[in-house]
Design goal:
The protein has about 100 residues and is an alpha+beta fold. The chain has 4 helices and 4 strands, in the order βαβαββαα.
Length: about 100
C-alpha cells in the first residue's frame, strides 16, 4: 500500500487458507478497499469469497465469458445454465463441509 495503488490484481488470494483465516483476509481486503478506494480484479474459484468481495462478476468457461453482471444479479438471478450449475455445486460443497 506504500505506492498507493488504485487497482490490485488478485489471483486466488484466499486459496489454501482455512476458514477462519479466510474470513479475516476477506475482512482485511474489504477494509483496505474502503480505506484506499481500491478496485480489485479478483480471480477465484471460491464463489463464497467472490460473493463477499465483488460488486460485478464475470463467469468464465474455457476462457470465454459466459455471463456477467452485478454480484446480486449473478448470484440471485443467473441467466446461464453453467452459472446456475456453478452456484449449485458451490452450495452443495458448503453443506458437505459443514457436516
Amino acid at each position: 500500500m506504500v505506492l498507493k495503488p488504485k487497482f490490485l490484481l488478485q489471483d486466488e488470494p484466499t486459496s489454501r487458507l482455512d476458514g477462519s483465516v479466510k474470513v479475516r483476509v476477506v475482512e482485511l481486503l474489504r477494509k483496505l478497499q474502503d480505506k484506499y478506494g481500491l478496485t480489485y480484479l479478483f480471480i477465484s474459484h471460491d464463489l463464497a469469497v467472490v460473493r463477499a468481495l465483488s460488486d460485478h462478476v464475470m463467469v468464465m468457461r474455457r476462457g470465454e465469458v459466459v455471463e456477467q453482471g452485478s454480484a446480486e444479479q449473478i448470484f440471485h438471478y443467473p441467466q446461464q445454465e453453467y452459472t446456475r450449475e456453478l452456484i449449485a455445486a458451490a452450495y452443495d460443497l458448503e453443506l458437505a463441509e459443514a457436516v
